[in-house]
C-alpha cells in the first residue's frame, strides 16, 4: 500500500463502519420500540381488565 492509498483506504473503512453502526442502531431502536409497545400494551390491558 503506497502512502497515497492510505487516506482513501481509511475513508472507505470509516464509511463502511458508519453504515454498519447506523444499521445496528436502527435494529436496536426498532427492537426496543417493539418491547416498549408490548410492555405498555400489557400494562394497559392489566389495568382495564
From TrEMBL:
<protein>
    <submittedName>
        <fullName>Uncharacterized protein</fullName>
    </submittedName>
</protein>
